[in-house]
Amino acid sequence: MNRFIRIAITTMLLSLCLGACSSHKSSETRVMTEHQRDSTIAASKLPGADVVGKALEQSDSAKARADQPLPP
User: Fold this and answer.
1) Torsion from C-alpha of 56, 59, 61, 63, nearest 10 degrees
2) What is the domain partition of the chain in residue ranges?
3) pLDDT in tens, 37-49
4) Residue 47, phi then psi, degrees to nearest 5
5) Which run of H or E residues covers position 53?
């Protein structure tokens, strides 16, 4: 019986230590923009990735046209 209690307490302490370590979050959180996520998908071999790539090209060219100054 004494051995069982010792094993149970050791298991609980180990579980608490491991649980406390896993809940610690890093102060650095990496957040990707929507464009970065879409670029990553477009570069992958996922089904439909080529469509995402073409949509990004269209979006980028439309943004470039919109950013150009108007002629006087």
Assistant:
1) -140
2) 33-67
3) 999 999 999 999 9
4) -60, 130
5) helix 49-67
